[in-house]
Structure formats: structure tokens, C-alpha cells
């Protein structure tokens, strides 16, 4: 008889009469992550890339299929239906009257949607993630954009693919996000409204500082902005100063974001199932400053150095760009709310397929076969 104690993914086994304790790792198989429904889904959010005429027909076809054939409640962003090509279509107008609409940053649909369908490129999935500050519904992304690293489904067979998802027969990959809080020092205590007109709660106001929170799927980028001086920011890990970044800036990314801006800056590519945060300098003024990977769950903090000659600028998945001044700070940690991304096959095959098809990873002309006659020369 033996007892077992689980701790941080390990199991400590202790056999009575034996002082030797054995540590064993229990690693989850990525293929075990499956999409299952407690009850059949009834509502779906359709995200369409704005101002893209090539998506009009697929969007209309999909919405008609979901509404008429699958009897789903379809949610669509209001500005999508304001497109003249859609609002001016009388035949499609009868269908749009059945839609539920919402406005970004104004309407909360977090508890109304069972799953999401994205039509477009990778940016469409990033945008869908930004709409949900907490739990995110499963996302099915169709490749109708330029790159398609995060969009594994092809639209040619959308009916059978969507039906399969509604029936709950699919693998998923949980893409971790970063929880980011931006603290502003110089802010009027009387002011209670942020830049988007949203009233801040007392929880967002700490000691007179403005603290705004973001959920980031790819990366947080801190750079020097329009200044000609080097970026000079201090990087803390769990409260300890680990380095000062001198260069064009720094990228803090998720494993999903490791194949985006970070890989262009020289970082390694990390599978989205790996619990980690990657720190990548942008053109550092030091030959020994290489990208590093830290455990998910640590808290990173970025501030301007005291002797910084200029301010810095920060963006979140390429959006919400803003200036960071002396006294401001950015805290980053792994979010408790990942993005469940529906796979075409499974998490491993989909990822390597994307590496090969989108980034042409390790693509080269093969060596010719060397025959025995050639060996003589």
C-alpha cells in the first residue's frame, strides 16, 4: 500500500517503510483535449473581417445555413451589417432581421454565445479574443485571409465542418492569454471615465492611478515609438529587477504569439500547449541579449528606467496603442481565461501544418541521391 500526493503536475509516491520518495510527472496528452457540449449549442457569434468584399458571399452563405438549416441564434457585430453591400441586399435583408447585434466595448455578450465562427485571417481571431475579457467560447476559424496560421478550416466544406462542431466532435487547443494591467500615475482622481467613455470601477482605481486591464492572445509590445533614442525600460520578474532593455523595445508573448512578431525578432517557436511566457528584445544594443522563456504564472512588470531619455509606447495584439511615461507601469501574467481554439485535426498536426504551409519552416531543396558510382569520385 502506498499514498500519493499531487503537486504542480507531479505525483509524490511514498511507500511505508521506505524513506525513498519517487517523483513522477503526469503530462497531459494534447489529443485528450476535446470539445464536448453539456447541451446542444443554440447561439453562435459570426466574426467577419470588415471592409473585405471577398468575404461577403461566404458570410451570407454561412449565416443563411446557420439560421435556416441549423436554427441557430446568430450574433453579428452591428457595424458589419452597416456595410452597404449587406444592408442594400433585399434578399439577405429578411435573414438579417433575425440576427442579434452588438457593439464593441458597449454591449456584453459573454454569457449569450455558445461558440464563435471567424471568417478572415489571423487578425479576425485576435479580434474575437479581445471581445471577451473573461471566459471565451470555443472558436472555429476559417482561412479566408492572407496568412491563416491560426485559421485551420477551409470554407469549401463548411457545412459538414460546422455540423461536426455542433455535434461536439472535435479536438481543441487551449491558447493561453496574457492578463495585462496598465497603471497610469498622472491621472485626476475625480475622473472616472476612460478613453473609450467607459466608467471605471473602484477596483480599476488604485491610489489615484488609472489601471486598465487587457486580455492579450499574441503579444504585448513596448517600443520607443517615434523617438530617435534607444528604448530604456526596466524589466522585473516577481518583483525582482532582472534586466534593463536598451534597444528598440521588448516583446512579451504567449506561445501562440511566438510565431508572430516574436519569431521575426529572433525568438523560438513554442507550441500553444506549452505553459510559458516568452520575452524577446527588439534590436537590443547588446550581442548577448537573447530571447528567454519563463514559466507561465510569473508576474512581469515593465517600467521606464529613471534615466530614460524618452517615453515608451505599448500595444496589445497590435491594438490600443498608448504612451507610457515615467511613473507608469505595465504588469503582465498568464490569464486564467484561455481561448479554446477548435482544431481541424488535432493540436500537434495542425501546428506543424501551419509551420509548413504559412511559414515554410525548414523548406529547402533536397540533396540528390548519391549512387555508388558517384562515391568513387
Automatic annotation (TrEMBL):
The keyword NADP applies. One of its GO terms (molecular function) is NAD+ kinase activity. This is NAD(+) kinase. Belongs to the NAD kinase family. Its EC number is 2.7.1.23. SUPFAM superfamilies: NAD kinase/diacylglycerol kinase-like (SSF111331). Keywords: Kinase, NAD, NADP, Transferase. One of its GO terms (biological process) is NAD+ metabolic process. The keyword Transferase applies. It comes from the Eukaryota.
